[in-house]
Write a structure and sequence with these properties.
Chain lengths: 502, 551
C-alpha cells in the first residue's frame, strides 16, 4: 500500500513542484516586497523544473491514486503545452507596463499564475469526475482573481465579475450532471463509469435519457472552459478586460486544459470498449445518443459565430478573443470524427496555436505598452513606425488565418484531412469557408498597419532587444513548422494514447 | 534528363532565384534605390537566361502529362516523411519539380513577363525596398506553380503568391486600392480553400507503394516489380493521381463518373475559374487591374490569370477526365459567355485600363473554349493563346502605363490626335491592338484561330456564337485607336513626349515576339505539340472508358 502510494507520488512530482512553486512564491513575496523580479524568477524556475519532470515521464501510462489522475502520453503532451505557455506568459508579464506600474504588488500575481497553471495541469490528467470538478474549480477561482488583477484598468473588475457569474452557473450545471451520472452508475471514475454504462443503457429509455442529460450538462461545463458557443458569452468581456497576459494565457493554456479534459472524459466514459475497431483508430461510441452530431453542431456554431462577430470588433484584444473562440470551433472539428486521427490533429493544432496566438497577443501588448491603445484604428501607419513588430504581427495573423507557408496552414490541413478521411465533407467545407471569413478581419489589422498612414505622429517605436528576441522565439516556429512539421506530427501521433482506453 | 548548376537542379534555380534576390534586396539599405532596382533586375534577368537554357535543352519529343518518364528536368527529394502509426499511414510528401510541354511555355512566359515588369517598375518610388521584395516573392510563387508536380507543393506556391499580391495592389495601387486588394484576396482564398479540400480528398483516394529506399511505385508498377518490403502510402503526386489504377477501392473519389468525383472536380474548377477569371467569378479582376500599378497589372494579366487555365490543364482535366467530359459543354458555355460579355463590357468603358481588363476576360474566354474542345487543335490553340495573351496584354497594360504616367488620366475620350505627337507610341500601340483583335500576321491570330477551329469541331453552335466576339473585339479596339490617335490634339496635351528608351525597350521586345510568332509560330507550338496531343489522347481514352463502363 505504502509502496503504491510512494510510486504514485513519484508520478505526481511535476504537480508537486508546481505546488511548491506557489508556496515559495507566496513566501518570497512577503520577504522581497519591493522587488518585481525575484518572484517571477522563482516562478520561472518552478515552471522549468516542473517541465523537466514532465519530460521525464514521456512513456509512462498509468492511473495514480486509485484512478484519480492519469499519467499518460496524452496528458504528457498537454502538460508540456501548458507549461510552455506558462513560461512564455511569465516572460510576457515581466515586460507588461500595465502590471508593473502604479506600485502594485506583483508577487501575488505570479503566485496565482502558478496556482492557475497547477489547476490546468490537473485538468489534463483528471480521470475521475470529482477530480475533474476540483481541477476546474482551482483553475477557475484563480483565473477570476487574475482577470481582475489590474482593478483600476477600466473593465477589469467588470470582466472579473462576469467571469465569476458565468463560471458559477456552468460549474453548477456540471455538478448537477455529475450527480446524475453518479446516481446512474454509483461510481465516479471515468473508466468505472464506462464499465457500468452498458447496464444503465439496458434499463430502458428513462435511464438513457438521464444519461444523455447528464452528458449534456457536463458538456456545458466543459464547453464554458473552452469557450464554445453557446457557453462563450463571458469570453469576449473577460478577454478584453483582463490584463493581456492573462487573456493570452486563458486563450491558450486554459483552453488546452479544457480540451484535454473534454477529450478524455468523452473517450474514456462514452466509448464502447467492447467493440474493437480501435486498432484502426476509430472510437466506437456507446449507443443511445449520437455525440458526433452534437459536437459537430457545437463546432459549427462556435467557429461561425466567433468569426462573424470578430468582423465587427474594433478593439484588437477583443478581436483576438473572438478569433480564439473561432479557433476552439476549428479544434472541435477534430473531436467530431472521434478518431485518433482527429485527436492527433487537435494535438498538433494546439502547439501551432500556442505559438501563433501567443505571438499575436505579445505584439499587441508591446504596441499597447508604447501607444497605450489596442484600438485597431490606432494601428494606422504603424507599419513604417515599427516595421519588425508589425511584420511579425502580420505573419502571426496570416498563420491564424491558415495560409501556407505558415504553421497555421498545417494545423488546418490536419483537421480537414481528418474530417475528409472520415467522410465529414460538409463540416470540412464549413470550416474552410470559415477561414475565408476569418481572413477578412485579420487582414483588417494588416491593412491598417501597412495600407493606411497614421494621422500626424510618426516617431518610430523603439523595440528592446529582449522584446525582439521573444518575438523571434515565437515567430521562428510559426514559420518553420509550416515548412517542416515532421517531428511535431510524429509527437502528436504518439501522444494520442489515453490511459484506460484500448 | 537532368540539368544541374552547382549540384542544384535548374528548376529549383529558376524558381528560387527571385527569393535570393529578395534576401539581397532586404539586406540593402533603404536609401540605395538604384542598387535595389538593379538587384531585382539581375534576378529576373538571370531567370530569363535560365528560361532560355531550358528552352534550348527541352526535348520536344517527350509528352509528360501523365507519365513521370515524360517529364523533363525532374527534381525529386523527400520533403516530409512521417512514419506510420497503427491507425494512420505514413505521410510522404515530395519536393517534386518537373516540366513538360504545357509548363515549359508558362515558364518562358513567367520569366519574360517578370523581367519586363521589373523594368516597368523603375518608376516606382514609394518604399522601393518593400516593393521589390514582395515583387520577387510573387515571382517565386508564380514560377513554382508552373514547375510543381506535387499537389501539396503546388498549393503552397499557389498561396504564397496571395499575400505579396495583396500588398502590391494595396500599398502601391490607385485610389480604391484597399477595396480592390481585399476583394482579390477574398475571392482567391475562397477558391483555394475549396481546392484544398479537393486536394485532401484526392490524397486519401490515391495509393502508391514506397520501398525502403524511398522509391515510389504506382500500383501497376508495384505488381510487376516484385520488390520486397513495399509500404502502401497515400500521395500528393499529381501524376499518380491521374492513374485510375492508383485509386483506393471504396475511397471517396474512387470509381468513374460518381457524384463525389463531380463535386471534387467542381471544387477544383471554382478554385481555378476564379483565377482565370471565368464569368461569373470575374468581378474581382476589373477592380484589381484598375487599382494595381502598371507593372502589377502586367504580372496579373500576363501570368497570374494563366495559373487558372494551367491548373485546369495540369490537374482538373487529367485527374478527372470523366468529369471534364461530362461538363465540357458547360465549360465551353462559360467560356463563350466570358468572351461575349467581356467584349461587350469592354466596349462600354471609357477608362482605358478597365477596357483592357475586360478584354482580358474576353480573351481568357477563348482559352477556356479552346480547352473545352478536348481536341489537339483546340487545346494547342488554348495554350498558345495563354502565351500570346500574356505578351499582348502585357503590352496593352504597359501602353496604358505610358500614357498615364504622362497625362495622369486614363479617360480614352480625353485624348485625340496623338499619332503625330507620339509616333513611336502609336506604332507599338497599333501592333498591340491589332494583335489583340486577331489580325493575321500577328501572334494572336494564330492562337485564336486554332482555338476556335478546334472548338468548332466539338461545339458548333457555341463556337459560332462565340465567334461574334472577334467582330466585337475588332470594334472596340479600333474605336480606341481612333479616339486616341486620330482627330485633333487637345490643347492640354501639346506637351506630351514620346516614349523614352526604357519604355521603348520593353514594348519593342514584346512587339518583336508578337510579330515573330505571328509569322512563325513553330518555336512555341513545337514545344507543346506532343504534350497537348497526349493530353487530348488521355481525354479521348477516358471517353472510351466511359462508354465501356456504360455498357
Amino acid at each position: 500500500m505504502t509502496e503504491r502510494l510512494l510510486h504514485d507520488l513519484a508520478l505526481m512530482l511535476p504537480e508537486a513542484a508546481l505546488t511548491a512553486t506557489v508556496l515559495v512564491a507566496l513566501i518570497a513575496d512577503l520577504i522581497f516586497r519591493r522587488s518585481t523580479v525575484i518572484v517571477p524568477a522563482l516562478v520561472l524556475i518552478g515552471f522549468a523544473a516542473a517541465g523537466a519532470l514532465v519530460l521525464g515521464q514521456a512513456h509512462v501510462s498509468e492511473g495514480i491514486f486509485s484512478g484519480m489522475l492519469a499519467v499518460d502520453p496524452f496528458a504528457w503532451y498537454f502538460k508540456l503545452v501548458i507549461l510552455l505557455s506558462a513560461i512564455i506568459i511569465v516572460v510576457f508579464s515581466l515586460g507588461f507596463t500595465e502590471l508593473n506600474t502604479g506600485g502594485r504588488k506583483v508577487g501575488e500575481y505570479y503566485a496565482l499564475l502558478a496556482a492557475l497553471t497547477l489547476g490546468i495541469m490537473l485538468m489534463a490528467g483528471a480521470s475521475n469526475v470529482l477530480m475533474m470538478y476540483l481541477a476546474i474549480e482551482l483553475s477557475s477561482l484563480t483565473s477570476y482573481i487574475l482577470s481582475g488583477y489590474t482593478r483600476e484598468a477600466p473593465d477589469s473588475s467588470e470582466a472579473s465579475l462576469k467571469y465569476v457569474i458565468y463560471g458559477a452557473v456552468s460549474s453548477g450545471l456540471m455538478l448537477y450532471g455529475i450527480s446524475i451520472l453518479y446516481g446512474l452508475t454509483n461510481t465516479l471514475g471515468f473508466a468505472e463509469i464506462n464499465a457500468a454504462l452498458p447496464a444503465v443503457l439496458e434499463k430502458g429509455t428513462t435511464a438513457t435519457l438521464a444519461l444523455i442529460m447528464s452528458g449534456v450538462l457536463i458538456m456545458a461545463g466543459l464547453g464554458y472552459k473552452i469557450s464554445a458557443v453557446p457557453f462563450h458569452f463571458w469570453a469576449p468581456d473577460v478577454y478584453e478586460g483582463a490584463p493581456i497576459t492573462i487573456t493570452a494565457f486563458l486563450s491558450v493554456a486554459s483552453k488546452a486544459g479544457g480540451f484535454a479534459l473534454m477529450i478524455r472524459f468523452f473517450k474514456v466514459t462514452f466509448i464502447d470498449s467492447s467493440a474493437l475497431p480501435a486498432l484502426a483508430g476509430v472510437w466506437a461510441i456507446l449507443p443511445g445518443f449520437d455525440w458526433r452530431e452534437a459536437v459537430a453542431v457545437l463546432s459549427v456554431l462556435t467557429m461561425t459565430i466567433g468569426n462573424l462577430v470578430a468582423i465587427w470588433q474594433n478593439n484588437l484584444k477583443r478581436l483576438l478573443a473572438y478569433s480564439s473562440i473561432a479557433h476552439a470551433g476549428y479544434m472541435l472539428m477534430g473531436l467530431v470524427v472521434l478518431t485518433n486521427e482527429g485527436l492527433a490533429a487537435i494535438l498538433l493544432y494546439f502547439v501551432i496555436y500556442l505559438f501563433m496566438n501567443m505571438g499575436a497577443f505579445y505584439v499587441v501588448m508591446l504596441i499597447a505598452n508604447k501607444t497605450g491603445s489596442e484600438d485597431i484604428e490606432e494601428y494606422r501607419g504603424l507599419g513604417s513606425r515599427a516595421p519588425f513588430m508589425t511584420v511579425a504581427l502580420a505573419i502571426f495573423l496570416v498563420s491564424l488565418t491558415g495560409l501556407p507557408p505558415t504553421a497555421g496552414f498545417i494545423g488546418k490541413l490536419y483537421l480537414f484531412a481528418a474530417l475528409i478521411n472520415s467522410g465529414w465533407v460538409w463540416l470540412a467545407i464549413v470550416g474552410a469557408l470559415n477561414s475565408v471569413i476569418a481572413l477578412y478581419y485579420y487582414v483588417r489589422v494588416i491593412r491598417n498597419m501597412f495600407l493606411r498612414s497614421g494621422e500626424q505622429e510618426s516617431s518610430p517605436l523603439a523595440l528592446g532587444r529582449l522584446e525582439g528576441a521573444v518575438v523571434l522565439v515565437l515567430l521562428v516556429p510559426t514559420l518553420l513548422l509550416g515548412l517542416y512539421f515532421t517531428p511535431l506530427a510524429e509527437l502528436a501521433q504518439a501522444s494520442v494514447k489515453i490511459f484506460g482506453t484500448p | 534528363m537532368e540539368f544541374n548548376i552547382i549540384g542544384i537542379g535548374i528548376l529549383t534555380w529558376i524558381t528560387f532565384l527571385p527569393v535570393v534576390g529578395m534576401v539581397l534586396v532586404l539586406l540593402l539599405p533603404k536609401e540605395s534605390k538604384d542598387a535595389i532596382r538593379w538587384t531585382a533586375l539581375a534576378a529576373t534577368a538571370l531567370q530569363v537566361v535560365l528560361a532560355i537554357a531550358l528552352y534550348a535543352r527541352f526535348d520536344r519529343t517527350l509528352a509528360g502529362i501523365n507519365t513521370e518518364a515524360g517529364m523533363q528536368f525532374v527534381e525529386k527529394a523527400t520533403w516530409i516523411d512521417i512514419q506510420s502509426v497503427a491507425w494512420f499511414g505514413r505521410v510522404h510528401i515530395e519536393y517534386f519539380l518537373g516540366i513538360d510541354g504545357l509548363s515549359v511555355v508558362m515558364v518562358l512566359l513567367t520569366a519574360l513577363v517578370s523581367f519586363i515588369a521589373t523594368i516597368s517598375s523603375w518608376t516606382i518610388t514609394k518604399s522601393l525596398k518593400g516593393y521589390f521584395a514582395l515583387f520577387l516573392l510573387l515571382d517565386t510563387g508564380m514560377m513554382g506553380v508552373f514547375v510543381a508536380l506535387d499537389f501539396f507543393l503546388f498549393y503552397v506556391f499557389w498561396e504564397v503568391m496571395l499575400l505579396p499580391m495583396y500588398f502590391l495592389i494595396g500599398v502601391w495601387g490607385g485610389p480604391r486600392r484597399e477595396y480592390a486588394a481585399i476583394k482579390f484576396f477574398l475571392y482567391t482564398l475562397l477558391g483555394s480553400v475549396l481546392m484544398l479540400l479537393a486536394m485532401i480528398a484526392l490524397y486519401f483516394s490515391t495509393n502508391v507503394y514506397i520501398d525502403p529506399a524511398g522509391v515510389v511505385y504506382s500500383v501497376a508498377e508495384a505488381a510487376k516489380s516484385g520488390v520486397q518490403g513495399l509500404e502502401k502510402i497515400h500521395t500528393f503526386n499529381i501524376i499518380a493521381m491521374m492513374d485510375p489504377g492508383n485509386m483506393v477501392p471504396g475511397s471517396l473519389l474512387a470509381g468513374w463518373e460518381t457524384s463525389w468525383r463531380y463535386l471534387a472536380y467542381g471544387a477544383l474548377f471554382i478554385g481555378f475559374a476564379i483565377k482565370v477569371p471565368l464569368f461569373p467569378f470575374h468581378t474581382w479582376l476589373p477592380d484589381a487591374h484598375v487599382e494595381a500599378p502598371t507593372p502589377i497589372s502586367v504580372i496579373l494579366a500576363g501570368v497570374l490569370l494563366k495559373m487558372g487555365t494551367y491548373g485546369m490543364l495540369r490537374i482538373s482535366f487529367p485527374v478527372f477526365p470523366d468529369a471534364m467530359r461530362h461538363f465540357s459543354w458547360e465549360l465551353a458555355l462559360l467560356g463563350v459567355i466570358s468572351m461575349i460579355y467581356g467584349a461587350l463590357v469592354a466596349m462600354a468603358q471609357s477608362d482605358f485600363k478597365k477596357l483592357i481588363a475586360y478584354s482580358s476576360v474576353s480573351h481568357m474566354g477563348i482559352v477556356v473554349l479552346g480547352m473545352a474542345s478536348m481536341n489537339t487543335q483546340g487545346m494547342m490553340g488554348a495554350v498558345f493563346q495563354m502565351f500570346n495573351h500574356g505578351t499582348i496584354t502585357a503590352m496593352l497594360f504597359l501602353i496604358v502605363g505610358v500614357i498615364y504616367d504622362r497625362a495622369h488620366t486614363r479617360g480614352i475620350d480625353e485624348f485625340g490626335g496623338l499619332m503625330n505627337k507620339m509616333p513611336r507610341y502609336a506604332a507599338v500601340m497599333s501592333i498591340a491592338f491589332f494583335a489583340a483583335l486577331g489580325l493575321p500576321g500577328l501572334s494572336g491570330f494564330i492562337s485564336e484561330a486554332f482555338s476556335l477551329l478546334g472548338a468548332f469541331q466539338t461545339f458548333q453552335t457555341l463556337t459560332m456564337i462565340g465567334a461574334v466576339t472577334l467582330v466585337l473585339t475588332a470594334g472596340y479596339m479600333l474605336w480606341v485607336l481612333q479616339r486616341v490617335f486620330l482627330g485633333t490634339l487637345p490643347e492640354k496635351w501639346q506637351g506630351l513626349t514620346d516614349m523614352n528608351g526604357r519604355e521603348t525597350f520593353m514594348l519593342a521586345t514584346l512587339a518583336v515576339i508578337v510579330i515573330f510568332l505571328g509569322i512563325y509560330p513553330s518555336p512555341v507550338l513545337d514545344l507543346m505539340n506532343v504534350s497537348v496531343s497526349s493530353l487530348a489522347g488521355l481525354l479521348d481514352q477516358a471517353g472510351a472508358v466511359g462508354i465501356m463502363g456504360a455498357q
